[in-house]
C-alpha cells in the first residue's frame, strides 16, 4: 500500500519561502544540495513528517504555475487568530473567511511568495 509523504514546489527564493511557511507553523527540517546545484529544503508541521519540499533551481526567476495546480490545505484551530497573526506579518487573505455550505467550516486562502495558494480551514 502506498502513502503520500510530501508535496514539492519549485521556488525562487529559499529564505522568503521558508519564512512564509514558518509563519504558517511549518518547521525547517533539513536542506540538501543536488549535483546540478539545486537545493531541496524540507519542512513539516511539529510532530509530523517532512510534508513540504521546496526546490530552488539557481538562475530561475519565476515559474508558470499553470491551470492544473490548485492549492494545499491546512486545518487550523483558530482561523481568526491565525489570520490576525499573519496580518501582523504582512500576510493577508485573498478575501475574508467564508463557508462553502451551510454549517460548513470557515475557510480562506493566502498566497506564498511564489503565488502558490494555501487554503486555511478552521476546525469546528
Describe it.
This protein is an alpha/beta fold and 124 residues long. Helix content is 16%, strand content 34%. The protein is built from two helices and eight strands. The protein has a four-stranded mixed beta sheet with strand order 1-4-3-2, covered by helices on one side. It has a four-stranded mixed beta sheet with strand order 5-8-7-6. A hairpin with a 5-residue loop joins β2 and β3. The relative contact order is 0.21.
Structure, briefly:
The chain has 124 residues and is an alpha/beta fold. 16% of the residues lie in helices and 34% in strands.
Characteristic terms for this protein:
124 residues; alpha/beta; 8 strands; single chain; 34% strand; four-stranded mixed sheet
Give me the secondary-structure topology:
Blueprint: E1 7-11, H1 14-23, E2 27-33, E3 39-44, E4 52-56, E5 72-76, H2 79-88, E6 98-99, E7 106-111, E8 117-122
Parallel strand pairs: 1-4, 5-8
Antiparallel strand pairs: 2-3, 3-4, 6-7, 7-8
Strand order of the largest sheet: 1-4-3-2
| Mean pLDDT level | 93
Q: Biggest β-sheet: count, sense, barrel? A: 4 strands, mixed
Number of helices: 2
**Rg over CA atoms:** 15 Å
Shape designation: globular
β-strand amount: 25-35%
Q: N-to-C terminal Cα separation, in Å?
A: 31 Å
Order of helices and strands: EHEEEEHEEE
In percent, how helical is the residue content? 10-25%
Unreliable stretches:
none
Total E-strand runs: 8
- Secondary-structure-based class equals alpha/beta
Amino acid at each position: 500500500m502506498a502513502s503520500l509523504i510530501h508535496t514539492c514546489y519549485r521556488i525562487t527564493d529559499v529564505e522568503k519561502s521558508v519564512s512564509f511557511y514558518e509563519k504558517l507553523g511549518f518547521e525547517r527540517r533539513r536542506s540538501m544540495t543536488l549535483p546540478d546545484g539545486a537545493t531541496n529544503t524540507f519542512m513539516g508541521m511539529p510532530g509530523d513528517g517532512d510534508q513540504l519540499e521546496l526546490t530552488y533551481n539557481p538562475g530561475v526567476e519565476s515559474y508558470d504555475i499553470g491551470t492544473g495546480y490548485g492549492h494545499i490545505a491546512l486545518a487550523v484551530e483558530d482561523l481568526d487568530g491565525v489570520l490576525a497573526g499573519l496580518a501582523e506579518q504582512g500576510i493577508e487573505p485573498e478575501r475574508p473567511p467564508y463557508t462553502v455550505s451551510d454549517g460548513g467550516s470557515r475557510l480562506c486562502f493566502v498566497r506564498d511568495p511564489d503565488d502558490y495558494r494555501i487554503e486555511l480551514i478552521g476546525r469546528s
